[in-house]
Amino acid sequence: MTQILIQGLLLSGLYALIAIGFTMIFSVGRVLNLAYGAYLMLGGYTYFWVAQTMHMPKPIGIAAAIGIGALAGVAMHRLIVRPLHSDPVAVEISTLILAVIIQAGIVLVFNDAPKVLHPIVDGVWRVGGATVTFNILTATVASWVILFALYHFVRKTHVGRAISAVSMDIKGAALSGVNPDRINMITWAISGALGAIAGVFFASYTQLSPSMWVSPLIIAVAVVIVGGIGSIIGTLIVAHIIGFMEIISTTLIAAELRGVFTMLLIIVVLVLLPRGLFGRGEL
Amino acid sequence: MTLLEIERLSAFYGRAQSLHEVSLSVGKGEVVAVIGTNGAGKSTLMDSIMGMVTNTGAMRLEGQDIIGRSPAEIVRHGVGYAPERAHLFPFMTVEDNLLVGGYTAREDIDRNIAHVHELFPVLKERARQETATLSGGERQMVSIGRALMTSPRLLLVDEPTIGLSPKVVAEIAATLRRLNEESGLTILIAEQNINFAMELAGTVHVLETGHMRISGTPQELMADEELNRAYFGT
Ligand SMILES: Nc1ncnc2c1ncn2[C@@H]1O[C@H](COP(=O)(O)OP(=O)(O)OP(=O)(O)O)[C@@H](O)[C@H]1O
Ligand SMILES: [Mg+2]
Q1: How far is B95 from chain A (nearest CA, A)?
Q2: A175:B147 CB<8 A
């Protein structure tokens, strides 16, 4: 029981971090970025290359991952989303293709053997009957800190509020002097950075592989569809629903079920509650 | 002194043309109204001034050419806009809506918020309420308030009275008059509510299916028999 509670909380924190960058793009630009999982992969591999291949300090690896993620986000906005005028279907097809291309690129550069990241923080912690690695604990705490910081950024800064404003009413934002295109680009940069940092933690929790972009993408899609929203609080709530559902099903039923219930949940919500649990798309 | 000068302005939505060579000018410190029935092109004119429509012709703000500029640039040039249907941010509080309005005029935020609260005390009481849950009148006040947060020299107001009770309409009229008289703010109003427009404006323009039909003082227009029959039902 304690095991489930602890594992559930840890996993859910990470899932919230994975999902938030994806939901931001959805709420601001009204498009699903299906290459979002590729940010996690780019972040994970960048960290691997800097910290483990080049033996540079871990913080530099994390900073490099964030930088690459932000750059990838801006590039996608400039080269795909803007030329396509944010047409949802065209953007979704292009980003899905892009994800496959990035996967091929990763195989080319790093080959397709899975790689294990050394823990970012070593050690374990025993509580009750459960053991928790410091690595996953760090990932969860970092996720909470990042989400908290993001929440404050969106509420309390001019650019953050402008991001919300664009997500709620583009015309209203424009006549307030906000340039929606610029705000979109900034959001793509933030989303890429968030995806990349989530990728470092996710890879250290599982492993690095050229197909690692799929399962985080499913988690992120599930959060958007189940939550129907891009609010940061809503993302946290839905991430916990999905995280706990996964831990409960894998520990109590069978480990092979990882991910299955999440996908089933997507379909059930699509059929029964097409607008999601909360029914709004704004940040 | 002319603040806004519009010459032979045409507006296009794709192939459809919604304004045909419309000209008008707004002097500093004036209140000017544009009246016309549904689809006459009033909102198109307002959106054109904000750089939100494809236009040909000339538009100058204090002598500076503003045609083809982005809305953000027009706002920085000193134009505040309370559009039709308000376009507020529904899941943000009243206060946050006003703060987004202050996106460009950041140094003036404290002063502007105090000014808006003084004009519309109810917005201070409702500062923490989401605008989705406000009444129509309160929403209109937030809309005008948000436009004032840009520190405008010219305020555009599109149909501020639509769907509002006479009491609230009178309140908004009083506030706009006060803004003009006390702060010297120049105001351009688009209205179907002829009485409201005639009461506030020194100059009134009549738009008809995208053409400027006639312009004059309220007295001059009242004296026009044909116009009277068409617009005032007398
Ligand atoms: N986004 C748009 N796309 C295409 N046509 C438009 C668009 N907006 C307005 N129009 C057309 O332009 C013309 C003028 O519309 P506009 O909204 O400016 O009129 P209005 O005078 O503001 O009317 P109302 O009093 O009903 O608000 C109409 O024929 C309308 O159909
Ligand atoms: Mg209109």
Answers
A1: 11
A2: yes
| Cα(B38) to centroid(ligand 1), Å | 8
Supply the pLDDT for residue A264. Answer: 87
Asked if residues B152 and B183 have their Cβ atoms less than 8 Å apart, the reply is no
Q: In this structure, how many other beta carbons lie within 10 angstroms of the beta carbon of residue B76?
A: 15
Identify any residues that bridge with B27 across adjacent strands, giving them in sequence order: B2
pLDDT > 60? residue A129? yes
The average pLDDT across A229-248 equals 86
Classify residue B64 as left (phi > 0), alpha (psi -120 to 50) or beta: beta
* Residue among A27, A161, A176 with most chain B CBs within 10 A, to mutate: A176
Closest partner residue to B83 (CB to CB) among A164, A175, A280 is A175
Ligand 1: residue whose CA is nearest its atom 5? B13
Pick from B75, B91, B96: which is nearest to A177 by CB?
A: B75
Band (pLDDT 50/70/90 cuts) for residue A230 is low
Q: Please answer yes or no on whether A175 and B71 come within 8 Å at the CB atom.
A: yes
Looking at the partner chain, which of A162, A175, A179 has a beta carbon nearest the beta carbon of B81? A175
pLDDT at A283 > cutoff 90: no
Sign of the Cα pseudo-torsion (A278, B100, A176, A80, in order): negative
pLDDT at position B233 is 59
Contact of A101 with A44, CB cutoff 8 Å: no
Contacts of B100 in chain A (CB under 8 A): 161-162, 165, 172-173, 176, 178
Among A111-125, A254-268, B139-153, top mean pLDDT goes to B139-153
Q: Which fold has domain B1-78+192-234?
A: Rossmann fold (3.40.50)
Q: Would you say B97 and B105 are in contact if contact means Cβ atoms under 8 Å apart?
A: no
Cα of B48 from ligand 2 centre, angstroms: 12
Which of residues A260 and A151 earns the better pLDDT score? A151
**Spatial distance between the Cα atoms of A76 and B89, rounded to a whole number of angstroms:** 27
C-beta separation of A211 from A56 below 8 A: no
For residue B40, give the nearest of B155, B187, B190 by alpha carbon: B190
